[in-house]
């Protein structure tokens, strides 16, 4: 199959000046990542050291029934802890000991920092080191921050995986590591395509269990599946692993480019690559084309929220025919985002960080056909007559790789169709 993609633009966005925003921002906190991480790591437990608000957030977001035994919980900081009247470290030791006694299946325990624990400067890193020594070798205790003080919600996963990288074993084996938590069905598709090309062994981070047989070393090459894994990317490089730079696997073009970069690294010939990818590529094209009928020539405006914004803008502009007005991202890591910026045609404002009031002014002035934003902004903007898409839904819905390309396009086309139907009903 010959590539049907449009050639890269003569002038991409790699050299576009980035609008730096450092004002008030509207995002969820990194604790949200626990909702999908605890499902991926079957022998892990996430203990948030935080407030009752943290506990309510996790319980509500995860929809866990009261009689269920999830793999996360909150060690609630009481007023005596916050006021320094109690030894929070001693209390944490007691809670962890009781937890591990009651749940002998736990092999990895994550102590997760929150806004309250960071405000009182509770040292969870030393606590994790102390507990690891105490409970080794049965349980490994790690620490990461899920605080939302200066971060967005997807950075919780990044901080978690980055905490795991230094403790993975050393290896000299040549292995491919796929980095990023994906729904099981999507992960199976990705690994299946790579295996069909003869690429292997393929390892996945996070693995479902601590004893998964893989390590990190100078012969490890890795491909990111999520654009927000920048700390993990740097941690892997410090271990000597090498990054396979590629666009992210959103849509047919992104998926093909991601697979092609890996195939090139492992010397897969063109005939084998075509044999494995031709059929799913055709299905993806057909599925995306249906949604693109609604999206073509429509304008889109991205508020910074999930860090998926640049790859999604590339997908919408190149495969669905949309026009990007502004693409806001919480952070832009040049080494990770360079392939995406090269494919984005010059034109949209590229913004990093957020000053929500100024960005709202620009959005209202542009009056885009679709605005991608957080939950806190969506309802007010809808009330003003703008059509919106919840950014968080793009993280919780399977959207990677070929078989989900049509679903991804549909997430953007449905709000526009809904608005059109409402207008028609109002006119009648």
From TrEMBL:
<feature type="binding site">
    <location>
        <position position="115"/>
    </location>
    <ligand>
        <name>[4Fe-4S] cluster</name>
    </ligand>
</feature>
<dbReference type="Pfam" id="PF00148">
    <property type="entry name" value="Oxidored_nitro"/>
</dbReference>
<keyword id="KW-0547">Nucleotide-binding</keyword>
<keyword id="KW-0149">Chlorophyll biosynthesis</keyword>
<dbReference type="InterPro" id="IPR050293">
    <property type="entry name" value="LIPOR_BchN/ChlN"/>
</dbReference>
<dbReference type="InterPro" id="IPR005970">
    <property type="entry name" value="Protochl_reductN"/>
</dbReference>
<keyword id="KW-0479">Metal-binding</keyword>
<comment type="subunit">
    <text>Protochlorophyllide reductase is composed of three subunits; BchL, BchN and BchB. Forms a heterotetramer of two BchB and two BchN subunits.</text>
</comment>
<comment type="pathway">
    <text>Porphyrin-containing compound metabolism; bacteriochlorophyll biosynthesis (light-independent).</text>
</comment>
<keyword id="KW-0411">Iron-sulfur</keyword>
<feature type="binding site">
    <location>
        <position position="29"/>
    </location>
    <ligand>
        <name>[4Fe-4S] cluster</name>
    </ligand>
</feature>
<keyword id="KW-0560">Oxidoreductase</keyword>
<dbReference type="InterPro" id="IPR000510">
    <property type="entry name" value="Nase/OxRdtase_comp1"/>
</dbReference>
<protein>
    <recommendedName>
        <fullName>Light-independent protochlorophyllide reductase subunit N</fullName>
        <ecNumber>1.3.7.7</ecNumber>
    </recommendedName>
</protein>
<keyword id="KW-0408">Iron</keyword>
<feature type="domain" description="Nitrogenase/oxidoreductase component 1">
    <location>
        <begin position="29"/>
        <end position="384"/>
    </location>
</feature>
<comment type="function">
    <text>Component of the dark-operative protochlorophyllide reductase (DPOR) that uses Mg-ATP and reduced ferredoxin to reduce ring D of protochlorophyllide (Pchlide) to form chlorophyllide a (Chlide). This reaction is light-independent. The NB-protein (BchN-BchB) is the catalytic component of the complex.</text>
</comment>
<comment type="similarity">
    <text>Belongs to the BchN/ChlN family.</text>
</comment>
<dbReference type="GO" id="GO:0016491">
    <property type="term" value="F:oxidoreductase activity"/>
</dbReference>
<feature type="binding site">
    <location>
        <position position="54"/>
    </location>
    <ligand>
        <name>[4Fe-4S] cluster</name>
    </ligand>
</feature>
<keyword id="KW-0004">4Fe-4S</keyword>
<keyword id="KW-0077">Bacteriochlorophyll biosynthesis</keyword>
<keyword id="KW-0067">ATP-binding</keyword>
<keyword id="KW-0602">Photosynthesis</keyword>
